[in-house]
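Reading a protein record of the kind used here takes only a little practice. The integers have meaning only within a learned vocabulary of local backbone shapes. With that in mind, consider the following protein and its fold in token form:
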Amino acid sequence: MKTFICSLCHNGILGGGLYLDSQSLTYRTNKFTVDKKYRNLVLPLQEIQELSWKRIVFPVATVNMKNGELHKFIIFNKSRFEKWYQEYSR
């Protein structure tokens, strides 16, 4: 499992951690004021349709799910994340 410092872009910027392994991409935050769904958001790799990037001061990754959901993350070590994402999503 690889760990990344990130922020979820959902009704503002929510700091947390992003965990990547061979099964899923998981976002976790300890903020109790956040909707429970986003405290432990699990995105199975086989359900991710596309991962795209945009740069707005920091690199922002948009995860497009097969069910139409979009999730945006500011990931602070883009090159390391891309390396491991490609490795796990083969």
In short: The chain has a mean pLDDT of 94. The beta strands are 2-9, 13-20, 24-28, 40-44, 48-56, 58-65, 70-75. The chain has two helices and seven strands. The helical segments are 36-39, 78-88.
